Amino acid sequence: MKRIISALLASLFISGVALASDESLEKVRSQKEVVVGFCAQYPPFESKNLETGAFEGFDVDLARALAKEMGVSVRFVDAEWQGLLGGLGKGDFDMLLTCMSKSEARHANANFSNVYYRLADVIVVSTKNTDIKGLADLSDKTVGVQVGSGSEQLADGMKERFKSLKRYNYNPEAFADLKFGRIDAVLVGITYALRQNKVDSSFKVVGAPLAEAEIVAVMKKGADTLTGEVNAALGRLKASGEYAAIHDRWLAM
What we know:
Residues 33-253 form the Solute-binding protein family 3/N-terminal domain. Keywords: Signal. InterPro entries: Iontro_rcpt_C, SBP_3_CS, Solute-binding_3/MltF_N. The protein is an alpha/beta fold. It folds into 2 domains: 24-117 and 215-251, D-Maltodextrin-Binding Protein, domain 2, CATH 3.40.190; 118-213, 3-Layer(aba) Sandwich (D-Maltodextrin-Binding Protein, domain 2). 40% of the residues lie in helices and 28% in strands. It is built from 9 helices and 12 strands. The protein has helices spanning 2-21, 24-31, 58-70, 84-90, 150-156, 171-179, 190-199, 224-240, 242-251; strands at 33-38, 41-42, 46-48, 55-56, 73-78, 95-101, 110-112, 117-126, 142-146, 164-168, 185-189, 203-220. Helix 3 runs antiparallel to helix 9 (242-251).
């Protein structure tokens, strides 16, 4: 009996130490702000307004609303997409809110929030193109994708269907090549594709959506208290209707 009691006490002690070591939420509360990392080159989720220089987009408004629910302010840090997960690991950010999918962050040592958006990947071609109507028509074509994106992971899984796959640091570079005929198609999230079409009507979406990505906020592994608080705040925003208002402001199709 004594051994059982000792084992239980030891277990409680270890659990208490583990719990106490997670200071992720306490850090945010003590500094009175949550530091959000993103790459502001992916409208309508996040971008920089060329006239005002201010950050804007769905993730921007959602981060502000989450921070308000948590009783803190928010500070945005614009960083290179490829460096976001590394920066999170080093402690540069408290969380990433940057249209990042579970699959994009799956190799990182990280916590995920509940899914806050489901994003379909689609095929985009020039409006001049009459040959490509769907995935089956890409067999002899060159397809572009952004490096490190869920679209790249999707394309890697089906690259035997293409003539070749060209990788770009950012989607605008891929769309520029598409416009000038240097590639035949781009795989990208549908919200970006539709936003791009509003800016430049020389593009069109063809075929059925290829896949659906689960978009999440990403925290450092073990940041369980902060993850729980973000999930609770997200739940309240959905219940109040504020999430729907933010969604409709930026992502209504």
